Amino acid sequence: METTNIDRTTEPVDPSDPYVRTAQTFPVLTEEQIERARLLGQEEPLPKGTILFERGQRSVDFFIVLQGNIEIYEHRQNGINVVTVHGEHQFTGELDLFNSRQILVGGRMGENGSVLRFNRQQFRKLISAEPDIGETVMRAFILRRVGLISHQQGAVTLIATKESADKLRIERFLRRNGYPLEVLSYDAACQETAFLQDVDLKEEQLPLVYIHLGEQLLHNPSNLELAQWLGLVEVLPPDHVYDVAIVGGGPAGLSAAVYAASEALDTVLIEAEAPGGQAGTSSKIENYLGFPTGISGQALAGRAQVQAQKFGATIALPFLVIATDNSVRTQHLSGPTPLLAVKN
Question: Domains in the chain, start-ordered, CATH in brackets?
Answer without folding.
Answer: 18-151 (2.60.120.10), 156-229 (3.40.30), 241-342 (3.50.50.60)
